[in-house]
Amino acid sequence: MSFNHSKVFIEIKNAYVEGIDTHKRAQGLKHFFLNRGTSFSPNIPILKKINFSCYEGEKVAFVGSNGSGKSSLLKMIAGIYPPIKGTINVCGEIAPIIDMGVGFEQEQTGRDNIKMLMLYNNMLDKYNKETEQEIIDFSELGKKIDLPIKNYSSGMLARLAFSTSIFQNPQILLLDEVFATGDNYFVEKSLNLMKNKFRNTPISIIVTHQENIVKENCTRCILLRDGNIVGDGKPSEIFKIYTRRKRK
Length: 248
Description:
Strand order of the largest sheet: 5-6-7-3-8-9
Largest sheet: 6 strands, mixed
Radius of gyration: 18 Å
Helix content: 25-40%
Domain ABC transporter: 17-248
CATH superfamily: P-loop containing nucleotide triphosphate hydrolases
CATH architecture: 3-Layer(aba) Sandwich
GO molecular function, one term: ATP hydrolysis activity
CATH class: Alpha Beta
Strand content: 15-25%
Keywords: ATP-binding, Nucleotide-binding, Transport
Function: Part of an ABC transporter complex. Transmembrane domains (TMD) form a pore in the inner membrane and the ATP-binding domain (NBD) is responsible for energy generation.
Number of strands: 9
Protein name: ABC transporter family protein
């Protein structure tokens, strides 16, 4: 697939995010619908003076130590964490795979949650029984798809969340540590599908600690530290910097 590399899909200028209360993160779709776009209590700096542009065809990895801000930056792009200063412009449909299980309705079945997540991502018009079955088959949940997800293990939730998002056809694909949970077979299967999606989705951004995933699939790497972007370049170059800093 050819891309227009001069087309900007994401542009962030001098953006700050403050005051994310980790104890009040979204617990379901109702919370997202009611609170999306609202601000949080200030005084806790999360992201500072972020400047980032992403062009069509770019495959980007956000890397950094725990608490560096890489997941928060992904959530700002997804519209979950709004900036209190600066601007962010995102052009295109987004499929976020962020915080496995967050956004699910615990009392609803896996099948119902597939439809609800499609609704939340503004892709309900693309939902049909064929797509639903593809998602169920890939997740390998079988008859458990019709159980309330409050009965699911973390691995089952991860499989459902990944399968639901990866079978959408967005312009922007956002993935956050999606392979941290799950058995080796499912992880390998997911990686193979993700590689295909990476090639064919106009914009793909992933948060991961796994150097091999970044080097094999990404064209660009962003290094974050203490809420700041401190590196932006080729994956091999950025990982050298990242590795040196981890050893200090």
